[in-house]
Amino acid sequence: MMGTFAAMLAKERIPTPEDRYRADVSGTIEAVAGVLKITRIQVHYLLKITADKRKEAQDCFEAYLPGCPAAQSVIGCIDIDHTLEMQDL
Fold first, then answer.
1. In angstroms, rounded to a whole number, what is the distance separating the alpha carbons of residues 53 and 55?
2. Where are the beta strands (DSSP E) in 1-89?
3. Alpha-carbon span 32 to 2, nearest angstrom
4. Model-level pTM?
5. How many CB atoms lie within 10 A of CB 39?
6. What is the pLDDT of residues 15-74, one digit of tens each?
7. What angle do CA 45, 47, 50 make, to 5 degrees?
8. Alpha-carbon gap, residue 76 to 66, rounded angstroms
9. Contact at 8 Å (CB) between 8 and 64?
10. pLDDT of residue 5
11. Spatial separation of the C-alpha atoms in residues 43 and 13, rounded to whole Å
12. pLDDT for the residue 88
């Protein structure tokens, strides 16, 4: 997911080096019919960006999931919550 989002940002000429782009990821595991199952993945992206690229970054964030192989492989089985926090560079 992080790679797909970064690729979309790159198309908009938004750099994603390690010191400007990260994802904090956690998951929820629950017993479903007596079997442990990952039921939710939470992804919080942090992107340090210049003010003039915020709209493009937000547009990429809103559009990346449908083209993300990892996300599309689990959507329907695992809920994905994702957020984007942008900080001024």
1. 6
2. 21-32, 35-49, 79-88
3. 28
4. 0.90
5. 14
6. 999 999 999 999 999 999 999 999 999 999 999 999 999 999 999 999 999 999 999 999
7. 155
8. 13
9. yes
10. 97
11. 23
12. 95
